[in-house]
Every structure is written in C-alpha cells, then in structure tokens.
C-alpha cells in the first residue's frame, strides 16, 4: 500500500504546483488518513518541498487497534504532546525552503491559522480548498473492496435483527444491539449513530432512538452502517411489525420504493448530481409529497459517511465511475410515521453492469 499512498501524495503535489505552491499542510483527519494511511489524533501531513512528513503529538500506533501510517513516510513526533502539530508542520515547511504553503482553510480555526502565520512569517499561506476531498471522490478498487465488506457487515447485522423478537423492545435497545452486532461481525465500529424509529417516528431522517417501544402495526425504520478499515457503508430499510401492512402503508412504501429505484437507475458516469436527485424527487413530488422532503437524495461515502458528491437539487457537477454514493429518499407523515429506503452503491458504466449495489438486504415490505 505504500506505493498507493505515495501516488496519492504525488497527485496532490501536482495539484498544488498548478496553483503555485510547492508545499501543503493537510490537517483534516480523513484527508490525512487518505494520504498517509493513518491519522493519529491531531496529526497533520506536511507535503514538503523536499520531504513529506507526518507530524504527530504522540508516537503513532499507541492507541489499542490503531493503524500504522505508511512506512515510506517520515514521522516526526513533537517533544511536548501539548504542542500543535500544524504549527510544527508550518515550521518544517519553512525550514525546507518553501515560500508558499497551501493549508485547508475550511478545517483550520482562525486562531490556528494565525498561529501558522506567526511561527513562519516568511511563508505565504494560500488555501488548498477541498483539493484532497476532490482526489478522494473516485475510489480505487481497494477502497471499494473495503466499502463492500462494510456493506456486508451492515447487511449481516440487520438480517440477524430481523430474525429476533421485536415487539416490546425500545428503539434505543434495538440501536445498541445493532451496533454490537456490527462489531461482532468485524466492523471497526458503527459508521454513524444508528437510527431506529418506530410508529410515528418512522421515516424521519436522522431520528435519534428513544425509549418508545415497538408495537404491533408499527412501521419500523432502521438506518445503520459499518466502518471497516476506515471506510463507511450505509443502509436503511423500513418494515411493518406483526401484522399485514395496512393499505396506506403499502401505498406509501411502494411510492418511496419507486423513488429510490428511479434514483438508483439514474446513477451513471456523466449524470449530473442534481439529475439523480431530480429522478427520485420527481416521483414523490408527483404524488403530492413535495413539502417536507429531505434537502438531498443521497451523498458520497468513503472515509467519511457524508462526503462529496451531494445529490441535491442545486448541486453542481457530474458523476464519475467508481464513485460510491447513497440513494435514500423518504417520506414522513406527522403523527403516523413513514418510510425510508437507503442503499450504498458504486457508480459503474453500463458496460460494467451499471451501478453496483453494495447493500443487498431485501427491499420487500416485510411484516416482522
């Protein structure tokens, strides 16, 4: 993997050279991990004029289960763990003779930015903007393999939950059980806070589990994901508890399923982000559910659960092959509940079979 990280850093170096900077300081943890193989707490990566350096407050790998950074990358540990690796990194950039240093202004605080400028006044600080995030958009097959395993773990955890007795258990209890099962199946941990929503809570995006108990006839919406080697999956499903679904539940479920299918089918290299959103949103708009829809239909996944691209009405840009995204439309009816269906997919060209579905738990409306 050392060659992979070196190649990523070289791509960033070329991007920096294009804007007139011979050095860059990467501070956002997911970006550090992408370029260095690991992101010890507080570490920054200096893409130097003569040498690349991972600057850490403490020796990397001290925490239990911590990953080791790229062995081909020099690591510099501060003499005092209370020091700021970013400030030390800027000092090293100046020592290497850099005149300009590109920094991630969207991640640095104003105070930290001022500290960088004061420690190396000869450096001209410029904005790296979201340069690393743009490199992260398209995943290589090793990254996709990690995402695929993360999706398999989430599918396993959800499948086991569906085989258990649900009536009478609280949303909070079910969420905790799902997160335990994720770890049991090999996940680093949950990709995000697991959401379990029952009855009138169902269908709400980002619902935080409560002590409400599952009742017969409820909609049950579950959204969870696994983190595997830093890469994160997401899956969301809605079920009916105990009895055959009511007519309104079947109608609403079929509608959201149609919207989700339209969004999935719109995924293709060259498709505009907003066109994917429009494909799913149009189905729900036409049925009279325009008000209260989520601001986006999906988003990218990778080292973070919510990364570029954003599949939203005003989003600018077009999809590339090998970009993993979610498609997750939903409808919530206040006081009654609702439906959310969420998958993680990888954009593929038609010659490769079209979008690759990573989360494969059935989307039938099951009565549990």
Automatic annotation (TrEMBL):
Q: Which residues form the signal peptide?
A: none
Q: Which residues form the Peptidase M24 domain?
A: 146-347
Residues of the Creatinase N-terminal domain:
8-138
Q: Which domain of life is it from?
A: Bacteria
Instruction: Quote the Gene3D superfamilies the UniProt record gives.
Output: Creatinase/methionine aminopeptidase superfamily (3.90.230.10), Creatinase/prolidase N-terminal domain (3.40.350.10)
What SUPFAM superfamilies does the annotation carry?
Creatinase/aminopeptidase, Creatinase/prolidase N-terminal domain
* Cross-referenced Pfam families: Creatinase_N, Peptidase_M24
| Residue span of region Disordered | 192-211
Designated name of the protein: Peptidase
**Origin organism lineage:** Bacteria, Bacillati, Actinomycetota, Actinomycetes, Kitasatosporales
């Amino acid at each position: 993997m050392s060659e992979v990280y070196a190649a990523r850093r070289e791509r960033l170096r070329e991007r920096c050279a294009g804007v007139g900077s011979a050095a860059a300081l990467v501070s956002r943890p997911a970006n550090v991990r992408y370029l260095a193989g690991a992101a010890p707490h507080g570490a920054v990566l200096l893409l130097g004029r003569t040498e690349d350096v991972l600057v850490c407050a403490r020796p990397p790998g001290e925490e239990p289960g911590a990953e080791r950074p790229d062995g081909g990358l020099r690591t510099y540990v501060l003499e005092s763990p209370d020091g700021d690796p970013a400030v030390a990194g800027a000092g090293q950039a100046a020592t290497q003779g850099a005149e300009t240093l590109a920094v991630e202004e969207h991640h640095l605080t104003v105070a930290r930015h001022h500290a960088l400028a004061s420690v190396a006044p000869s450096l001209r600080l410029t904005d790296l903007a979201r340069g690393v995030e743009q490199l992260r958009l398209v995943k290589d097959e090793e990254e996709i393999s990690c995402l695929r395993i993360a999706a398999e773990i989430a599918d396993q955890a959800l499948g086991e939950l569906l085989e258990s007795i649900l009536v009478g258990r609280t949303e909070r209890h079910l969420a905790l059980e799902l997160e335990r099962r994720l770890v049991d199946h090999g996940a680093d941990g949950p990709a995000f806070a697991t959401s379990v929503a029952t009855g009138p809570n169902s269908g709400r995006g980002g619902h935080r589990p409560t002590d409400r108990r599952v009742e017969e006839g409820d909609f049950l919406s579950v959204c969870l994901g696994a983190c595997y080697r830093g890469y994160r999956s997401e899956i969301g499903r809605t079920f009916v508890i105990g009895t055959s679904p009511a007519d309104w539940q079947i109608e609403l479920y079929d509608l959201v399923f149609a919207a989700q299918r339209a969004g999935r089918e719109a995924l293709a290299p060259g498709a505009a982000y907003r066109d994917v959103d429009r494909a799913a949103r149009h189905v729900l708009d036409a049925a009279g559910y325009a008000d209260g829809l989520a601001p986006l239909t999906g988003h990218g996944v990778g080292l973070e659960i919510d990364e570029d691209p954003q599949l939203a009405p005003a989003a600018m840009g077009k999809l590339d092959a090998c970009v993993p995204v979610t498609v997750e439309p939903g409808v919530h009816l206040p006081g009654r509940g609702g439906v959310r269906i969420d998958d993680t997919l990888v954009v593929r060209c038609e010659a490769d079979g079209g979008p690759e579905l990573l989360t494969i738990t059935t989307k039938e409306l099951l009565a549990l």
